[in-house]
Amino acid sequence: MSFVAKKKLTMFDYVNYSLLALISIVCLFPFIYVFSVSFTDPKVYIPLKFYLFPDKWSLSAYKYILSTNSFIHALKSTVFVTVIGTILNLIVSFSFAYVLTKKTLPGRKILLAAVIFTLVFNAGILPSYLLIKQLGLLNSYWSLIWPTLTSAWSLLVIKSFLESHPPELEESARIDGCTEVGVFLRIIIPLSMPAIAAFMLFFAVSHWNTYFNALIYISDSKKWTLQVLIKSLVIDSDSTGVGQAGAGGDDRIVPQETIRMAAIMLAMAPILLVYPFLQKHFAKGVMLGSVKG
């Protein structure tokens, strides 16, 4: 029978934990404020007042923001870009990384050099914009998907993870008559589920938070993503068509601030809901390829 000795906390530990707890509480205040204001009833809302909890709960801001065409269009755009973009990211990244693990591949060193080159050097905004324009992708959802199909960092991490698989598994599959595609689909993919879950979260969050590319490539307000819409709500809300309006069919006016906070909460909610279910795989996946042997 073994006993695990408990570590005795020192004064430094107490001070360190106290500071971390204080910083965590301070970081939570903006989220608490956004949450409270979004649920505050328009009748009792007072501008520039900090709300730890709403004085009176109400869904007026959410009912209004969900009834506006601009938010619905932005939500559809973001969901489309996130779902299609994440699926294509996973397909391209894992298939490309699998190819790079093959040392007998002709031109493998050139491909690896090209990948590493993009990790160090970037063409910049202007060449990227001109390329998207020449391809006819301006004001298209594909302008937010094609340029980000994969990245050098993702490829190198996935490649390192795939190389940790025992080569004997692939050899035995080939002896049984599997082709390279069969080995990839029947052997590599099932063994890579933790990596797939982790990178699915990475890619999905990246697409859901798409802002800058949507800002420069999408000029049609009906194709804006949620992040661009929220920027317009927070900074120049008058131009979005989402302003003060009656809510619930009565004479109440929904304040601009509660509308903004409700939009922010709705934009954060999907990621906050999905993350706990993928946290187990995420915690395992972030260490992929970091340790070998």
From TrEMBL:
Enumerate the spans annotated as ABC transmembrane type-1 domain. 75-277
Keywords of the record, alphabetical order, are: Cell membrane, Membrane, Transmembrane, Transmembrane helix, Transport
Question: Its principal location?
Answer: membrane
Its annotated compartments are: Cell membrane
Q: Where are the transmembrane segments?
A: 12-35, 79-99, 111-132, 183-205, 259-278
Q: Which InterPro entries match?
A: MetI-like, MetI-like_sf
PROSITE patterns, alphabetically? Answer: ABC_TM1 (PS50928)
Cross-referenced Pfam families: BPD_transp_1
Topological category with respect to the lipid bilayer? Multi-pass membrane protein
Q: Which family, according to the similarity comment?
A: Belongs to the binding-protein-dependent transport system permease family.
Name the UniProt record assigns to this protein: ABC transporter permease subunit
In its UniProt entry, the species of origin is given as Paenibacillus anseongense
